[in-house]
Structures are given as C-alpha cells and as structure tokens.
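Now for one record:
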Amino acid sequence: MPRQGTGASGHIAAELLKLHAGIDIVHVPYRGAAPAAQDLAAGHVSMMFDVVSLALPQIQAGRVRPLAVAAKQRVAVLPDVPTLIEQGMDAEIGAWFGMLGPAGTSPQAIDWLNREATKVFSVEDTRNRFVQQGAAMPLGTPEAFGKFIEAESERYGDIIKRAGIKME
C-alpha cells in the first residue's frame, strides 16, 4: 500500500484500517501522493488512501476504483461509495484545512478574519466548488476550531502510538 510519507494522513488512515480490521498491509513509501496514485492506476500497488479531491480525476477516468471513504458520512461527489464505518470499522480520518495565524494575533483580527472567511465560504458557488471536489465545508468559530485541533491531535497521537509509527 503506497503512502505519501511517514505520518501523512494516508499512512495514518492505513494504520487505522489495520488496527480496526486486524489485517496486515505492506507500506510502500513514496515521495508524494502523485507517484503513488500513478502506480495504483498502473496496477503496481493494490490500494492507497488519498484525499477525494486528488483521487477524483483518476476515479472519473476509470483508472482507479473507490472502495470506501474514511469519513463519518458518504461524500456527496461519490454517493455510491460506502464509508468504512458502514462496513463495520470505526475508522474515520482525513485531511482538513483551516486558517491559522501567529500566536498573539488580536481577538479583533481573529474575529474579522473568521467573519470574512465565513462570508466567502458561504457563497453558494464557492461552497459548491468545494463539495464537487469531495470536500466538506464545516464553518464555525475560532474557539470551536481550536477544540477540533486539540481533539484531532489527541486522536491522531493515539493512532500513531498504537500503530508504532516512528518518524524516519
């Protein structure tokens, strides 16, 4: 199973699948997702975890077949692809993005950035573009995002410990 690098989301997703399914997957290290995806399409490796938006062109071209998504719910752009949870594995993991700033950024600046970002990402056309690429668009407060980061750090840390992932 190719991975984009030690500790990358694809690597952690594979380790989580191994832990939940009790299976062994051989990791094949790659220097990035693109070469790994090329080898998957060419049949040199049998599976990989990738971000939906990056895999979508290969899926749409019929070069790779989606088996499952590691999300809480199905992805709108791939409605027929079940989640790992639906297949009996409590395995949810994925890449997420957020806006961060330097420590000490004033509360007024943070509030302004949050309001403006919320406006931009609430525009229907913008929102639809992200959804069509397989992205979810949860919007919220900076405080909620901080709690999300803390929870994700703890959850990923637990997976990394249980799987014995070591940085090379």
In short: The chain has a mean pLDDT of 87. The longest strand covers residues 2-3. DSSP finds six helices and two strands in the chain. The helical segments are 9-21, 33-42, 52-60, 107-122, 124-132, 142-163.
